[in-house]
Write a structure and sequence with these properties.
Layout (H helix, E strand, L loop, with lengths): L3 E6 L5 E7 L2 E8 L12 H23 L6 H5 L4 E7 L3 H18 L3 E5 H7 L12 E6 L4 E8 L2 E7 L5 H11 L7 H8 L22 H12 L5 H4 L1 H27 L3 E5 L6 H14 L2 E3 L10 H13 L18
């Protein structure tokens, strides 16, 4: 019998629902929140309120897209074998909305409940496309709040072998964009302008952190001090080159650590995941590293890079097969440790 899972993702400011059947994603619907652009960042209270408004229509749309041949929502819900939700990490108010909705649905349908770790789901998003890695593989997970190198031994055996000791790569992109006067979210804008600039125009400090860990606070400080020394109008006159140089500095740090991980582990199947994996500079650097080091790279489609329920669904599918269910008293956590 096929295993059909409804997954809900609400860790930050995207409300998303996905339906997965035997590991195949039938739908992956996302409602974005534009209200945060005014404030230059995600406002937790506004995010949780928007989730409450969005979650019912988002789930209903995901079910409709997955089962267009079934006429009613009640009949579509009967197709489900389990309900999955993001338990951690994330904004606690946002997580609560998704968790409570998933629990209520699971209880009313008498279906098992699956709690998913958001960062593990980013790694397993690489298992969604047809062209996917086999185990073991390495995954560089880069987002606004996390930067990690993960050794994936199986869908339920993921080991962090390197992570940031302070700021994340995504935060470095966004904070650098703010220093350059770019609006929120600034990371994609740096990527956009970098395509027209010279990545070697300006050089910034590269933190020397031992082993496989990362640090981006020193790089941000280096960019800040460099810009403070410049004359008025410098940023506007050199915006493309500045964006290209900032992106080059961040991507270089990421790729160097990834290469070190490949040498240490001997694993040459290399994946990227997380919101920053949509960055064209990082994607291009992975292709070049493949040519230079003979890696076998894997990059998930753009829709599975940023926060989405498809990655929650594929992770929940493997947890279902492993019998990893949770109880109705499971609590979401803003900073859950890696399981």
């Amino acid at each position: 019998m096929p295993v059909t899972i409804l997954a809900i993702e609400s860790s930050c400011d995207e409300t998303s629902a996905s339906v997965c059947v035997d590991g195949a994603i039938l739908s992956n619907f996302i409602a974005n929140q534009t209200v945060h652009e005014t404030f230059g960042g995600v406002v937790p209270e506004l995010a949780s309120r928007a989730h409450m408004q969005n979650i019912v229509p988002v789930v209903d749309t995901a079910l409709q897209k997955a089962f267009p041949e079934i006429p009613t929502s009640a009949e579509r819900l009967q197709k489900l074998d389990a309900i999955a939700f993001t338990q951690a990490p994330g904004l606690i108010g946002s997580l609560l909305v998704g968790a409570q909705f998933a629990k209520s649905l699971a209880l009313s349908l008498q279906k098992p409940l699956i709690a998913v770790h958001h960062m593990q789901a980013h790694v397993l998003a690489n298992l969604i496309p047809e062209h996917r890695p086999s185990f073991p593989f390495l995954c560089l997970t880069v987002s606004g709040g996390h930067t990690q190198i993960v050794l994936a031994n199986s869908p339920t055996n993921l080991q962090i072998i390197g992570e940031t000791i302070d700021d994340a790569a995504g935060e470095a992109f966004d904070k650098s964009a703010k220093l350059l006067g770019l609006p929120y979210p600034g990371g994609p804008l740096i990527d956009k302008y970098a395509k027209e600039g010279n990545p070697l125009a300006f050089k910034f400090a590269e933190p020397q952190i031992p082993e496989l860990n990362f640090s981006f606070s020193g790089l941000k400080t280096s960019i800040l001090y460099f810009l403070q020394k410049q004359e008025p109008g410098f940023i506007e006159a050199n915006l493309n080159d500045l964006c290209a140089s900032v992106q080059h500095a961040i991507v270089t740090i990421l790729i160097k650590k990834l290469q070190k991980a490949v040498v240490q582990t001997g694993v040459k199947q290399v994946c990227i995941a997380g919101g920053v994996s949509a960055n064209s500079g990082l994607r291009n650097a992975l292709v070049e590293a493949d040519k230079k080091y003979k890696w076998e790279p894997f990059v998930p489609p753009f829709e599975y890079c940023t926060d989405n329920a498809g990655m929650i669904a594929i992770t929940a599918y493997y947890q279902y097969l492993a019998g990893q269910f949770t109880s109705l008293d499971a609590s979401p956590s803003a900073r859950a440790v890696w399981a």
